[in-house]
């Protein structure tokens, strides 16, 4: 079987680390309109989904970080894949792409540039967290 | 109709469940592959979900392995399986379908597409049920035909039987043609006695 590798890691990381400071309307960080549309216009449900994402986020990031530090390919692939899927469902594009880059690295068996990709993920999450907190009404 | 949603990601699982429940379907959830398999084993022979929406990669038993198990376990073969996957490569999809998935949907899923694919599954389930009912009817009809064939006309005097072509033939010839029987010829004690009496009565 062949795993697809859709996220060139340096391209994603470079884009995220280029100094762009996303605002509330930044759809790359979070396409809130798309998310609300997907849930049939139900903003309350969108807020609930944001909270579900935040509930799992710290554990997921810790697992990814631990996998990179331990250089464990399968562990990184599974953890990054899980975050990519969740971020994709939430229409959080930058986090999806950054975790996808880490998943691609793991699939290719290489940890070259992994710290750079981790930084990219951290940056993407820094932008995303307040947007999600606002959706949950806790900002 | 009952649908099992097995997805480890809470966000995606919630979205799947809400989408399907809003369309009026009865949804059961499982948070990983082991829990999904337990649902099937618990409901076996009772009220098994007709459709399973399975995440490909999840902790415990992966969705692809559940596909294989469902298609090789009596009572589960007809479950319609939709794999949810972010693995979009053609080889991956071919692998998933070969393992027994009936369909797949890409993550992040689109609710309209999900509905359309589940409705296809619903039609397939109805068709399978209808076919199963027809098979039962045909089996009952065949059993009835076999009983009719069991009413075999036989001549009261010469004991020949009337075959399907409406010809009278010897009973041993009939049964040799219509069954696995082979006859060995002998003479019963009563006929032996009768024959001996007839021989004795012959003029010397």
Most extensive interface, residues per chain? A-B, 26 and 23 residues
Record the strand order, biggest sheet of chain B: 2-1-3-4-5
From the N-terminal CA to the C-terminal CA of chain B, the straight-line distance is 91 Å
Question: Beta fraction of the residues of chain B?
Answer: 5-15%
Specify the structural class of chain A. Answer: mainly alpha
Q: What is the fold named in CATH at topology level of chain A?
A: Four Helix Bundle (Hemerythrin (Met), subunit A)
- For the record, the CATH class of the largest domain in chain B is Alpha Beta
Second rung of CATH, namely the architecture of the largest domain in chain B: 3-Layer(aba) Sandwich
Number of separate structural domains of chain A: 1
Helix content of chain B: 40-55%
Notes on the protein architecture:
The complex is a heterodimer of chains A (139) and B (204). Chain A has one domain (29-136): Four Helix Bundle (Hemerythrin (Met), subunit A) (Up-down Bundle), CATH 1.20.120. Helix content of chain A is 71%, strand content 0%. Chain A has six helices and no strands. In chain A, α3 packs antiparallel against α6. Chain A is elongated. Chain A starts with 8 loop residues before the first helix and ends with a helix. Chain B has 204 residues and is of the alpha/beta class. Chain B folds into two domains: 2-139, Rossmann fold (3-Layer(aba) Sandwich), CATH 3.40.50; 152-201, no CATH class. Chain B is 50% helix and 14% strand. In chain B, the strands form two sheets. Chain B has a five-stranded parallel beta sheet with strand order 2-1-3-4-5, sandwiched between helices. Chain B has a two-stranded antiparallel sheet with strand order 6-7. The longest helix of chain B is centred in the middle third of the chain and has 39 residues, at 111-149. The radius of gyration of chain B is 31 Å and the shape is rod-shaped. The interface between A and B is medium-sized, with 26 and 23 residues.
